[in-house]
Each structure stands twice: as C-alpha cells, then as structure tokens.
Specification:
Chain lengths: ~90, ~450
C-alpha cells in the first residue's frame, strides 16, 4: 500500500508545500513498507492491547473541583471578544 | 569540589548541616549553565525565581524544616507544565505558551522543597531519538559536542551529566529517558506505566507515556521516585498501588537473583563493544551471587514496527488539539517530525487502513507484552543493551527517519508492555558513554534500584 500524502495532510489539517509533499511521500512510504513487517505474523484470534493498566471505567465523585476563572482560561488566546474565544468562521 | 557536582543525597546532607546554602548551590548550577551555554541544554532558565526560592529555602533550613529536596535545584523537560513559566514542548507551536497550572509532578517536586532551575531542551513534542528535532536547535553531548546526547529528553540528560542541575525530569514513550541517559552517562528511570502521574505533561502517545527522571546515581533515582510516584485523582490511568519504600532495596544485593538475558537483544546489529561490556557487567553480577540465564522474547523483531504504528496513531490524536485558538500558534508551525508522525498516524487510523495497521499492531502488542509476562515467571529481571550503537554524530541520521526510528529497538518494548526500565552507566567506549538496561515486571522499580546499585558498585 502507499500513502497519499496530499490526502492525509488534508485529513490532518496540515498545510504542506509541494516540496514537502514530495519529501514526506518518500519518507512516509519507507516507514510504511517497514511496518508492513507485521503482516508476516499470524494474529488470528489474538486480543488487542490498547493499554497496560487493566483498569476499566475509572470514575470519581461527581463534585466540583477548582477550575480556571474566565480571564485565566483566556490568558493564552490571541483573539478573544467579550470574554470568549474568537474562532475563524466555520459556515 | 564544586557544589553543582554533588548528588542529591550529598547536597541534602550539606544543606542540612549548613556547610553551604541553597543560594550557593543554585548559583553554582546557574554559572555552569552559563559556562556551557553552547550545549543548548535549556530553553528557559529561571534565574530570578530560582534565586528567590533558594533564599526562602535557606530560611526554612535554618528553621530546621526537613523535606526530601529542600533547597535543591532541579530542571524539568520543557514538556512539563509550569504555572507562569513558559512551556514550549520545544515546538514553535507553543513558543509563547504560559501555562495556567502546573503538572502534578511539578507540584510534588515543589512540595518536597525542590527548586525549578529551568526548562530543558528536547525533541519537539518528545519526537526523536537524538535531540535534533527541537525547534530551538539541537542539544549537544557534553562528552563530545560533535555527537548527539540522545533524545528525546536531551537537555534533561545533559543538564545532569554537565552538572547544571542535580536531577532532571523527562518523559519516556519509547526510550526518551533511557537512551539519553545511556548517551550522557547518567542514570535514567522509566517507571511502570501509571506509577507517576501524567497530568499536566504534554501528551505524546497516551498509552505509552511514562514519567521519569535523570540522576547522577541509583540512590538519587530512588529518592526522586519516592517524591513523584503515587496516585493522582487527575490521572485516571493510575492503578491504586502502594508506593514502595525504594531506599530499602538499595543495599539488598543480588544474591540468588535471577537475571534473564534475551538472546534476541544480542544478535546482529548490536555493536560488539557494547555487547562485551554488557557481558562483563553480567559476569560481575554473577560474581555477586546472581544467576544469569539466556531467555527468549520471541516477538522482539516486531517491536519497532508495532511501536511506529501505535505511537504515531496516538500522536496524531493528541496533536489534533493544537489549532492556535485557545493557546499557541496554528498548525503551520509544526516542524517536519511532528508533521510526519501526524500524517502517518492519521493514515494508519483512517478508514480502510485501521484494521490492516492499527488493529494488527495492537494484537502484536499483546504478543510482545506476553513475552515479558512469560519471561518474568522464570527470571526476576531482564538485562539488555539500551542502544545498539554508541552515540552518533550530529546530523548523521536527520534525513533518514527510518534509521533514526531503528535506534529505539531495545527500548520500545518496555513501553509497549508497560513495564519499568532503568539505564545505568557502564563506562566509556572510545570516550563516549554506554548504558546497560535493566527491565522488571510491573511496579518492580525497587528491584531495578537493587540491581542497578549492584551494577554501579561493580565499578564499571
């Protein structure tokens, strides 16, 4: 299989130049052909491991804890308006 | 002897006996940082804050207050959030980010009396094995500045090796503590997944990230872990496991302890000189009563492939939040390695490829984990190299990502299995350091310190 860099860059919302596309196409496909090594291994009926703690459904009491005040939450944003984050137009 | 060369233990003793002050200790580290600025170990040095805190620490020491790290300067990988102190993850995306809160570990270190002397350089977002992927320029190896210090926690390892701080924190997702520890001749601990809180530490790959540290010796590593370990309600991935009294393990010796030597870690590709050094270390442990035997971890050959699917998949998800709206700059500020990992991860998770790559990798992860579960039924610890080669020259692998990834071959397995590992210095090869890795079952950090101390005492 082969990675279509233009397509995945779009999915990941990453702006790329033409030169970058070319460079990454080569590098990513090299890595891809390396990881295809896993195809050698028969994995039929083997469970998946997505974490190693064995913990499930970790919950806590539903009580308020300290959270940011409005001005703290906004302190790193470049654009805000009336105490809210200003975001680019979506529609 | 300069104060900055002291171990944590020695510094604590000197401070409490008032042989010197915290101000003097902090100043000796600050002047070393200035002296060796060309190593590029720090992104931010907290001169003013550190000196103020040192003044306060001296007052508290005078009042006979006793805390494990009171008055001792420690550096933090610049991926640990520090309230009010810029935190960049060594990426231009966050070059103006001032966190509104501190990581749990930072709070714990401060509560123990530690002084944050600065934020260390690293591969951006912890992506890298050499320290060269930093958007703030590469860190250099203090043993020879033409060589890489290892990554991703490059500046943290260098800050301890070059006596700029007495200990430093790092993160280890696939070897990012153990590899630079090995390349810089310091002790590097990757604790069990879930032993130390990940809260407030910029996430790389959330099922693999381990929060550890660098110290000058094994005893200090145990001391640091006793400060940082333990349950945190803000990290839901921490088993409720009692924190051992790690200091108790230090002088237990290795008599009758069973050491497994996995033959897959000693095959082709391993530098002959590293192999000889490890064999010598094992012989010295045997002379102290340990019993060594060859074992097999049969799925080792799939580890890098498995890791370089799971890790970028999780990276692509974690880095999706950086949109430049609430904080930081927009996605055009990501540099090459982050872009590669985001795209690769996006690909292996995308519709039509998920089963072929990501799902299969999670299945192989089960096999790799089982290899270790089986091994630890027979042996107490497993001993391996940390790196297949000694440090390489700056620039040597930067245009070949795959070659760079392959240098993680002996370290990624511990992250996939969630087990702890420690890198201990075992001397120099052509004037550059090499480390030995000790791996143990989940939550066996005490045993790693026990064996690590014996390796250290063998006088390598």
């Amino acid at each position: 299989m082969k990675i279509n860099v233009k397509h995945v860059a779009k999915l990941a919302n990453l702006p790329l130049s033409n030169e970058e596309e070319k460079k990454f196409e080569k590098q990513l496909n090299e890595v891809l052909s390396y990881v295809e090594k896993l195809n050698e291994k028969d994995v039929e009926n083997i469970e998946e491991t997505n974490q190693t703690t064995g913990l499930e459904n970790v919950t806590r009491e539903d009580i308020n804890t300290i959270c940011f005040a409005q001005d703290e939450a906004l302190s790193n944003s470049k654009k805000n308006h009336n105490g809210m984050f200003k975001i680019p137009k979506i529609f | 002897m300069s104060l900055n060369t002291l171990s944590l233990k020695q510094a604590k003793e000197g401070l409490s006996k008032k042989k010197f002050s915290s101000i003097e200790l902090v100043n000796s580290c600050l002047s070393e940082i200035k002296e060796r600025k060309n190593l590029n170990a720090f992104i931010t040095v907290c001169v003013k804050e550190a000196l103020e805190e040192a003044k306060e620490a001296d007052r508290r020491i005078k009042d006979e207050e006793n805390f494990p790290l009171l008055g001792i300067p420690i550096s933090l990988k610049d991926i640990y959030l520090t309230k009010g102190i810029r935190t960049t993850a060594a990426s231009r995306v966050l070059d103006n980010y001032i966190p509104q809160y501190s990581a749990t570990v930072v709070k714990k270190l401060k509560e123990a009396g530690g002084i944050i002397i600065g934020k260390t350089n690293c591969d951006a977002w912890a992506h890298g094995s050499s320290g060269e992927n930093s958007d703030f320029g590469p860190t250099k190896n203090p043993w020879d500045e033409e060589y890489v210090p290892g990554g991703s926690s490059s500046g943290s390892a260098v800050s301890v090796a070059a006596n700029m701080s007495l200990a430093s924190t790092g993160t280890d997702t696939g070897g990012s503590i153990r590899l630079p520890a090995s390349f810089c001749n310091v002790v590097g601990l990757k604790p069990t997944y879930g032993r130390v809180s990940r809260y407030g530490i910029i996430a790389m790959a959330s099922s693999l990230d381990s929060i550890g540290h660098f110290t000058k010796n094994v005893e200090d590593s145990a001391l640091m872990l006793s400060v940082t370990a333990g349950k945190d309600p803000n990290d839901a991935t921490m088993p409720d496991k009692k924190v051992d009294d790690y200091e108790n393990y230090l002088n237990k010796g290795v008599k009758d302890l069973k050491i497994g030597i996995p033959k897959e870690y000693f095959s082709e590709g391993l530098d002959k000189r590293i192999k000889e050094k490890i064999e010598r270390s094992i012989n010295l442990l045997e002379a102290r009563g340990a019993i060594a035997e060859y074992i097999s971890l049969p799925h080792t050959e799939y580890a890098i492939a498995c890791y370089y699917i799971i890790q970028p998949a999780e990276v692509s998800s974690n880095l999706a939040r950086y949109d430049g709206i609430r904080y930081g700059n927009d996605r055009s500020s990501f540099a090459d390695e982050a872009k590669r990992r985001i795209m690769f991860g996006t690909y292996v998770l995308s519709s039509g490829y998920y089963e072929a790559y990501y799902k299969r990798a999670m299945q192989v992860r089960t096999l790799i984990k089982k290899d270790f579960d089986d091994a630890f039924k027979k042996v107490d610890v497993v001993i391996t190299p940390v790196s297949p080669t000694p440090p390489w020259k700056l620039g040597e692998k930067t245009s070949d990502p795959l070659a760079m990834y392959l240098s993680d071959i002996y370290t990624v397995t511990a992250n996939l299995a969630g087990i702890p590992g420690i890198s201990i210095p075992m001397g120099l090869i052509d004037n550059l350091p090499a480390g030995i890795q000790i791996l143990g079952p989940h939550f066996s950090e005490g045993r790693l310190f026990q064996v690590g101390k014996a390796v250290e005492e063998s006088g390598l």
